[in-house]
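Hi L.,

You mentioned the student needs an example of a multi-chain input paired with its predicted structure. This one should do, with 229 residues in total across all chains.
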Amino acid sequence: QKEVEQNSGPLSVPEGAIASLNCTYSDRGSQSFFWYRQYSGKSPELIMFIYSNGDKEDGRFTAQLNKASQYVSLLIRDSQPSDSATYLCAVNMGSDYKLSFGAGTTVTVRA
Amino acid sequence: SAVISQKPSRDICQRGTSLTIQCQVDSQVTMMFWYRQQPGQSLTLIATANQGSEATYESGFVIDKFPISRPNLTFSTLTVSNMSPEDSSIYLCSVEGTGRGTGQETQYFGPGTRLLVL
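Structure written out for the whole complex:
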């Protein structure tokens, strides 16, 4: 079983819709969870982090964490064509800043 | 977050040669990481480089193939040795960081080095 798994893509949504991205992780002791956005040909950019159960909102992005279910998600509201990218889920499973990354979900927002 | 630069940004190399990639940070950091991202794939951690100690390699990566230097708190190099076409990839360095005032440990990435081996 992979340490971090993301829902397979690609995910295509119309402009203005909600894009929903899911991620599960294997280590129940994981404490911190991150979403990175990676545009084609670019390096990953941190867009959200969450470490408490529940929802965390930042602009059009909402991260949701359920530690009991070992599940973290990212919602993108009012999706824009500029949101078209690959979204990587990353989990800090211990100390020393080490992160485990999921395979990524590619999102395409149709104008 | 720190400003991170990498050199070269891209290169085309011949089989059997070696390439050294440089990573420079504008502030002192204890931990630096080197990743590989093969086409269409996610990030795979090669090694963790702490200043003043030997790099720690992940399973499947060895020092003879990917020697790393970390001479100070703002600089690191990764060498890809005796290259083959299978080494064609994006190589990324990242540094420790904290998530916008929360103290939560995370990483910030450099722009990457795109390597093509013929």
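You could point out the following to them. The mean pLDDT of chain A is 92. The radius of gyration of chain A is 13 Å.

Best wishes,
N.
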